[in-house]
Amino acid sequence: ADIIANLLPMATAAHWSGGIYSPLLAVFVLKIGNYGLIYSVQVGVWSLIVTAILAAGLGVWGGSGSIVELPEVVRQQLTLAFGALLFIVGCIGALRFFRELGDRESRLAGALREQERLYQQSLRDQQHLRQLSKRMVQISESTMQRVSHELHDDLGQALTAVKMDLGRFDRDLPADSPLHGQIQETREQIAQVLQSVRTLSQLLRPAVLDDLGLIPAIRSYCSRFGERTSIPINLSLPPAETRLPQPIEVAVYRVLQESLTNVARHAAARRVDIQLTVDVSNARLTVEDDGCGFDTGQQLDAALENHGMGLLGMRERAEVYGGRLSIESQPRRGTRVTLSVPLAGAELVEESHVENQRVAS
Fold first, then answer.
1. Average pLDDT for residues 262-268, to the nearest whole number?
2. Engineering a disulfide at 205: which of 64, 66, 148, 290 sits with its beta carbon 3.0 to 4.6 angstroms away?
3. Which residues have CB under 8 Å from 208's CB, separation 6+?
4. Mean pLDDT over residues 114-132, rounded?
């Protein structure tokens, strides 16, 4: 109805003032375009359809002679009147158009503000997640350190005392007592349990890592790993006295530990090369094997099905200290795990030390 009410007088005015030669035809076309801009393309198409129908109707009406021939002065006056009407309608359409543009700009500005708010919120959430990850790593390491010490000190000492008591009982028994064999068998079982406890304590948190540092801890772990798996390991390490901030040493040791665990479980490797380089600002660990490898093109999530959560844990541990973990692998071409950690990422040294004291107390 709005389209017909606006286009009918315009079409009549254009028809009376010359048809396709009318000077009002350009304004008429602009008005049709306004409908498409203000409302939608569909409304503009309907405007064209209505225009065609009106033009055809006026052409038939005017061609049949049913329109009374008006004097030229009257037609000029009508043309001016319709021209004024077109001007008014055009102004109203322009106001509608600019008002719609203003509304769209307001909605766009509101959407941009909301996007910025959500972006800032996501940054805060990421910061909270990083802080939570750091806290979880600290608590995890503190817990493993405490459990390792309790296993080594309390349970280890208790088992050692039981073994010594059994030895004393064995010596006090008569030489022909049948209990000698049972006591000896029991002592051997206790010795095996004691060795298992010591091994578990070393896996949780090796004392050499806290006492002597990262380099001796790596040599000790690789030696035990080679004995268990019969896989030769080629080490390239800095001097033994090289020390890093404690959190960085723990992070590098855990990545090495998890990498070698994956080698033993999945790689079927015949050789492993380990290289650690330390400069003024960074520590870089590379663990490379010649095993079966896997397809990294399937992304880490697919690799987790074969390699467990260890890969994700290594990456998370690297990101906690601002480092970067890369995993390069191809089927039947081995795997290379590279960890690069900035030494400046150890800002949690003091906090970790305080946390360790709190948990231990």
1. 84
2. 148
3. 216, 217, 220
4. 85
Q: Which of 163, 168, 292, 278 is nearest to 213 (CA)?
A: 278
Residue positions counted in the chain? 361
Residue 124 in tokens: 């805060």
- Say how far apart CA 142 and CA 247 lie, in whole Å: 11
For 287-317, write each residue's pLDDT tens digit.
999 888 877 665 455 555 555 556 777 777 7
Ranking 91-105, 265-279, 309-323, 329-343 by mean pLDDT, the lowest is: 309-323
Mean pLDDT of the chain: 76
Token pair in block for residue 84? 């004024």
Longest dimension (CA), the chain: 150
- C-alpha span between 172 and 166 (Å, rounded): 10
**Cα separation, 344 vs 183, whole angstroms:** 56
* Tens digit of each residue's pLDDT (9 = 90 or more) over 324-346: 888 888 888 888 999 998 887 55
* In the predicted structure, residue 164 carries a pLDDT above the cut 60: yes
The three state secondary structure string of 158-218 is: HHHHHHHHHHHHHHHCCCCCCHHHHHHHHHHHHHHHHHHHHHHHHHHCCHHHHHCCHHHHH
Measured at the CA of 174, the angle between CA 169 and CA 178, to 5 degrees, comes to 85
Answering whether pTM is above 0.70, one says no
Distance (Å, whole) CA 243 – CA 241 = 6
What's the Cα-to-Cα distance from 86 to each of 13, 82, 155, rounded to whole Å? 9, 6, 99
Of 49, 56, 9, 43, nearest in space to 28 by CA = 9
